[in-house]
Write a structure and sequence with these properties.
- The chain has about 350 residues and is of the alpha/beta class.
- It contains 12 helices and 12 strands.
- The strands form 2 sheets. It has an 8-stranded mixed beta sheet with strand order 6-7-8-3-9-10-12-11, sandwiched between helices. The protein has a 4-stranded antiparallel beta sheet with strand order 2-1-4-5, covered by helices on one side.
- Strand 1 and strand 2 form a beta hairpin.
- Helix 6 packs parallel to helix 7.
- About 45% of the residues are buried.
- The structure holds adenosine-5'-diphosphate (ADP), iron/sulfur cluster (SF4) and magnesium ion.
- The site of adenosine-5'-diphosphate has 13 residues, from strand 2 and helix 1.
Length: about 350
Amino acid sequence: MVVPMPFLEGIMSISNRPMPFSAVDGELLRVEDLRVYFGHHKAPVRAVDGVSLAVRRGESVGLVGESGCGKTTVGRAVMKLVEIIEGRILFGGYDITSLRGGNLREYRKQAQMVFQDPYGSLNARMPVGQAIEEVLHVHKRGDRAQRRKQASELFHAVGLNPEYLGRYPHEFSGGQRQRIGIARALAVGPSLIIADEPVSALDVSVQIQILNLLRDLQRNMGLSYLFVAHDLSVVRYMCDRIMVMYLGKIVESGSSERIYSFPSHPYTEALLSSVPDVGKGLDSRKGGSKRIVLKGDMPSPTRQIPGCPFHTRCHRARDKCRVDAPRLRRVHPYQWSACHYAEELLEENRTASGTSKSDAF
Ligand SMILES: Nc1ncnc2c1ncn2[C@@H]1O[C@H](COP(=O)(O)OP(=O)(O)O)[C@@H](O)[C@H]1O
Ligand code: SF4
Ligand SMILES: [Mg+2]
């Protein structure tokens, strides 16, 4: 089966490439029709239900959606931390879906995860420098003196004073701990970082500092990011492209600018109307647009919803939506949407923004 890949049509993946992971035509990560289900097979939790995405070398792709929509599970699947029911994952053109043992360890040097709460993943009783040196040791990076030097360089790279390497996790602030989490992820020299809500737990002013650090590191090291967040403004600030997720599926994807200026799915529209704009100091809602309040909570992912999965909460739902499931389809050269009425929505947003048709399309 050929899986449609938003924006990467024409870029072929060669799945029998040997290690080391060399990127094919700039594409580093490719996820095809990924399904991850939890629980009993009679009523599974469909955490990820047919997600396809791709990340190019040096690119940031944002995965955004409400809590429980499956973002973390996508990240964990890419890290090979959960069992995949269906689909494939290609890294640098190499199929890593069934990777095990030594090859899996090799792969995990290339892809690293940064978490929302670095405190949870740091050993409270170990000085942070030692924790970084231990990661280097596990991955057989240099002798003791070289590891100490590398830990010091990593601290410097993430904006921390190497004199603090002897301190314990509780002696750092939340922002500093996130810098340590980033240093630890960088220790093994990855090319892909899966950043799972890396700033969600931080104060707004600290958020910007960490986002800027991630951007600088990306520029200096040529990193690719799969950037997970529930806040569209944070994702827009960081990412070239955005994938919007709802109930385990991608409902809209496109360039950040397109999605932010001309959403083509009512769910994106609702998310956009409720987020502050990080680029403007997190103090204003996008374009002063009217707030759309989503009805109720996201349904349980064990429920199979007929028609459009979003219809129970959609402010634009019509009769057709209750019976006919929309497919993710191209609605603009840089935008895909899983809404029957995407074109109407685009036209409405274009008119409301006062943009001429030639500028918008
Ligand atoms: N290990 C697990 N066992 C059972 N259900 C899980 C597990 N991990 C996640 N889920 C469920 O899968 C869904 C998606 O979770 P998650 O990927 O964490 O979403 P997000 O990161 O978008 O908040 C949720 O309903 C969550 O409760
Ligand atoms: S298909 Fe219908 S229910 Fe689904 S997002 Fe579009 S308008 Fe809403
Ligand atoms: Mg999560």
